[in-house]
Amino acid sequence: MQSFNYHTHTVRCGHAVGKDEEYIQNAIKSGFQVLGFSEHLGYDGWDDPQERIPFLEMDAYFQRMYELKEKYKDQIEIRVGVEFEYFEDKKEYLKDVQSRCDYMIVGQHAKNFDHYYDHGCSDDDVDYMAEQIIAALDAKLTTYVAHVDYFMLGKEDFTKRNEEAIARICDAVNRNDAVLEINLKGMKYGKKVYPTGMQYMYPHYDVFKIIANKGCKVVFGYDAHNPSVLLDRSLEQIAQKEMQGLQLHFIDTLKL
Ligand SMILES: [Zn+2]
Ligand SMILES: [Zn+2]
């Protein structure tokens, strides 16, 4: 079982439940040594109460998390972070956020403030998403790519062009010594029939086949939106079984 989880949300994003400290207490119970909070980043001009922290509440979030980090320091290592989307015109803001927290993970849910990729995604959109993730890595904003296959929620099939987009992301991950996440929350959306068989939309087997062939480092991310998720360590085994046959390069420790 993995000793760390860097993908944890809080009620502040509008679609998670539970108290901050319940996440921490459950992580301790489950034997995690490191728990990272990665709340959905708020952006000036993009208040979306169901999706992310209000922009003006970011400071209070960081402050509270650093208090909890101190409070629990003898029991578990808390890391304070955010899950962000990369937008070229927000690069300065992202650099500023980076300077105010321990780490950032890129979870590219959206093309822009108006279009989320799970609400429909063309091959052009996947190419665009790949460029956003690659830019985030090359700008050294992050070394952790959350659910690179999230876009499959908005697509019917995984095409040749998508394979190439994933391969480009893998190259950027490797040259930046970054990791790709097997997102354990994705399994709750269930499986669909694809030309290559029944698969989860994400974590998507055909995507991880490329990741395995590219030799990228991979980790599990619980993407917890409910404290109870951190008690269910069997999710790792279920995902591992799903990825059977792939030579994935799991790592034992990760310091973000
Ligand atoms: Zn979320
Ligand atoms: Zn996400």
TrEMBL record:
GO terms for cellular component: cytoplasm. InterPro entries: Histidinol_P_phosphatase_HisJ, PHP_dom, Pol/histidinol_Pase-like. It catalyses: L-histidinol phosphate + H2O = L-histidinol + phosphate. It is an enzyme of class 3 (hydrolase). One of its GO terms (molecular function) is histidinol-phosphatase activity. Belongs to the PHP hydrolase family. HisK subfamily. This is Histidinol-phosphatase.
